[in-house]
């Protein structure tokens, strides 16, 4: 496993009232309770959110064990604080407000960005994969761009929002795109060009600091990794591990292609944006855009094609069978968006959606 890159995962969760399902501003209390159990939860922009972070791992089984432990600990801490932990991209219920976490940085972001910051409660999942250096991270990011819509569709988990079916599998990604440095990453020819772009965004006051570079793939500022941020927080641990395994396989494949000097096909920004929108709307059980033929094809077929493209890397990491079987299982059972809609259609009662999401959050199978 010496040549297989390590990885780590961050997951953001929503805190809701156990009775109404409405977001509750208790992240500090939840973090304090988790700390008593030896788990450090990060406070997110709004005080109805917390974030977990795994340690660096080498295997998907090790990742699964950590994610189960972190979700269980965070859920227990939430319960002790009078809240409920949900792995959802957005609140299913109608929130009264999203109070910001009271830190200097978050207060400043709230003042600068107004309703973009105050209408949040957005929960995503970030996968870090080790790469040799920042040049490699930028090159990998360029090569991952065509695969991001498929990863978004796979993890979509925000169909129900404000007591309504949004008509999108991932409404989170639509709302998230309002930030000036979010969504599909631009192509950069070098780390120098990437850093110059970030400096421009900061110096022109478009973003507050480099921590607000929210593109769906970026070189990490804190770790020697490339960070893939395209996903809604997946509904279950199994889906997060599947997503992380695919991301690592994609990074390994991109590194190998770069080393061989494989040409990078042109990808016009409007085509990528169209593929993103289609993935966000239709999700795993719908159609996506085949970027080679620029036609609609079933998303599951596109994902199966991606798995075969990544097969050498997945086999090297020992993840090919897990990923193939995992996609089939998620497609049969339904990802987060599909399960939300199944729950919603029973009675059009958001309580059913909240209950389904709470159960999925702690599902270990």
TrEMBL record:
EC number(s) reported in the record: 6.3.2.2
InterPro entries in alphabetical order: GCL_type2/YbdK_subfam, GCS2, Gln_synth/guanido_kin_cat_dom, YbdK
Keywords carried by this UniProt record: ATP-binding, Ligase, Nucleotide-binding
GO biological process: modified amino acid biosynthetic process
Molecular function via GO: ATP binding; glutamate-cysteine ligase activity
Signal peptide: none
Pfam family, one: GCS2
Top-level EC class as recorded in UniProt: ligase
Domain of life: Bacteria
Catalytically driven reaction(s): L-cysteine + L-glutamate + ATP = gamma-L-glutamyl-L-cysteine + ADP + phosphate + H(+)
Record family assignment: Belongs to the glutamate--cysteine ligase type 2 family. YbdK subfamily.
NCBIfam families recorded: gshA_cyan_rel, PRK13517.1-1
PANTHER family named in the record: GLUTAMATE--CYSTEINE LIGASE 2-RELATED (PTHR36510)
Function: ATP-dependent carboxylate-amine ligase which exhibits weak glutamate--cysteine ligase activity.
The protein's name in its UniProt record: Putative glutamate--cysteine ligase 2
């Amino acid at each position: 496993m010496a040549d297989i890159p390590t990885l780590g995962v961050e997951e953001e969760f929503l805190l809701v009232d156990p009775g109404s399902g409405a977001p509750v501003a208790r992240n500090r209390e939840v973090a304090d309770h988790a700390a008593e159990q030896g788990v450090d939860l990060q406070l997110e922009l709004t005080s109805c959110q917390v974030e977990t972070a795994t340690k660096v791992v080498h295997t998907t089984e090790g990742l699964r064990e950590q994610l189960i432990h972190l979700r269980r600990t965070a859920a227990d801490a939430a319960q002790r604080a009078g809240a409920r932990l949900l792995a959802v991209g957005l609140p299913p219920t109608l929130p009264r407000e999203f109070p910001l976490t009271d830190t200097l940085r978050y207060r400043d972001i709230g003042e600068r960005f107004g309703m973009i910051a105050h209408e949040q409660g957005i929960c995503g999942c970030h996968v870090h994969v080790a790469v040799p250096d920042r040049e490699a991270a930028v090159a990998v990011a360029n090569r991952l761009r065509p695969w991001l819509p498929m990863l978004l569709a796979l993890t979509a988990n925000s169909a129900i929002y404000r007591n309504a079916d949004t008509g999108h599998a991932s409404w989170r990604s639509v709302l998230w795109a309002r930030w000036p440095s979010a969504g599909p990453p631009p192509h950069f020819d070098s780390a120098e060009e990437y850093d110059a772009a970030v400096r421009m965004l900061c110096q022109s006051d478009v973003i507050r600091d480099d921590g607000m570079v929210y593109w769906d793939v970026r070189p990490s500022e804190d770790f020697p990794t490339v960070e893939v941020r395209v996903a809604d927080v997946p509904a279950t641990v199994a889906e997060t591990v599947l997503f992380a395994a695919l991301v690592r396989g994609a990074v390994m494949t991109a590194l190998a292609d770069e080393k061989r000097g494989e040409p990078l096909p042109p990808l016009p920004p409007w085509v990528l944006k169209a593929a993103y929108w289609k993935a966000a709307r239709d999700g795993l059980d719908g159609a996506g855009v085949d970027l080679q033929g620029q036609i609609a094809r079933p998303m599951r077929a596109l994902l199966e094609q991606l798995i075969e493209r990544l097969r050498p890397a997945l086999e090297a990491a020992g993840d090919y069978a897990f990923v193939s079987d995992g996609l089939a299982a998620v497609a049969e059972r339904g990802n987060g968006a599909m399960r939300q809609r199944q729950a919603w259609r029973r009675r059009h009662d958001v309580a059913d959606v909240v209950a389904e999401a709470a159960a999925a959050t702690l599902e270990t199978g």
